[in-house]
Amino acid sequence: PPLVPPADLESFQKHLNSSKRIVALVGAGLSASSGLPTFRGAGGLWRTHEATELATPGAFQRDPALVWQFYSYRRHMSLKAHPNRAHYALAELARRKDFMTVSQNVDGLSQRASHPPSSLKLVHGSLFDVKCNEFFCEYAESNNFTDPIVPALALPTDESDPTTTEALRARELDISDERVTLPELNIRDLPRCPKCKKGLLRPGVVWFGEMLPKDTLKDIETWMDDPRQIDLIIVIGTSARVYPAASYVDDARMRGAKVAVVNMDPADVPAGGLYAGDWFFQGDASEIVPEILK
Ligand code: BJW
């Protein structure tokens, strides 16, 4: 069998139309054309840091201010971004089929494209959930869209910008660029837990080494284990290297599903079993997904 599966639209759509149960596993590439950077490869650096190195409990322990600056920046960028045609196409598919989106993304764009919440499973949490970092405190809130979450995390602005007037706010500086000076923060000015009044709040996302949300995993397992077979898994914009999320590809395949991959990079067609998949559509998810789901 070929290393890279074919991009045969006709056979894919035939299978899609006859499929009764479909799951999509999506990752950062889904939101790339909305202007949000991916984790690996170009764009995976935030200042001088690998994005994946900031996404750990150890990083937050060592430097909560830096980690909050990273997440506050991403909250801001995600709120400014717009869902793209692929987010809408998946939301639409969820309305007409027995379909579930397993999203590794934390940017809120699928929700804003009105994906039915009951069939959208967020395995890595959300940038807009926050919770207390103290193990004894169970404080958590969701849909906190306050931007910046605390005044100290406001992006620095270019006060020397000549176009700045009272009506027009000064241009925000891009703190993901290491040439821009990061504002110095006092730990006291970071978001604090309103319940225990002791702990720092932290983003409600899943960091390396942490458990994925139990209820979400349970829902996915129940859907996957339904005696009615899964016919198709569509793997969109993910390097499929992070577990356990990546294992859903083989889980679905083992349950009889065919595998379709949408990705810019043929090197990221998930390797598994005897060969990678049944279809590979190479290119930008925001163009390809609406096209193949038509
Ligand atoms: C486009 C495009 C365009 C670009 N159109 N495409 C089994 C084996 C080995 C290791 C492990 C294992 N089981 C568990 C582990 C450890 C670890 C792990 O998987 N490590 C691997 C790296 C090896 N997993 C965990 O720690 C998980 N927890 C866990 O397992 O708990 C149990 C446990 C506890 C203790 C010990 C052992 C077990 C938790 C994983 C949490 C991941 N969290 C992050 C951060 C979330 C918060 C945040 O956003 O900051 O999740 S890391 C980061 O990676 C983020 C993403 O959701 C995730 C996946 O990345 P994604 O989405 O695939 O992005 P990229 O950048 O990798 O890929 C983008 C793709 O798009 C590329 O393919 C591009 O080509 C493509 N693309 N533009 C289409 N326009």
Automatic annotation (TrEMBL):
- Keyword Metal-binding assigned: yes
Q: Superkingdom, according to UniProt? A: Eukaryota
| Molecular function per GO | histone deacetylase activity, NAD-dependent; metal ion binding; NAD+ binding; protein-malonyllysine demalonylase activity; protein-succinyllysine desuccinylase activity
List of catalytic residues? 124
Q: Residue ranges of the Deacetylase sirtuin-type domain?
A: 2-294
Annotated residues for binding of Zn(2+): 132, 137, 193, 196
* Keywords tagged on the record: Metal-binding, NAD, Transferase, Zinc
Where in this chain does the entry annotate a coiled-coil region? none
* Cellular component, GO, one term: nucleus
State the family it belongs to: Belongs to the sirtuin family. Class I subfamily.
Q: Which PANTHER family match?
A: NAD-DEPENDENT PROTEIN DEACYLASE SIRTUIN-5, MITOCHONDRIAL-RELATED (PTHR11085)
Q: What is this protein called?
A: DHS-like NAD/FAD-binding domain-containing protein
Q: Which organism is it from?
A: Mytilinidion resinicola
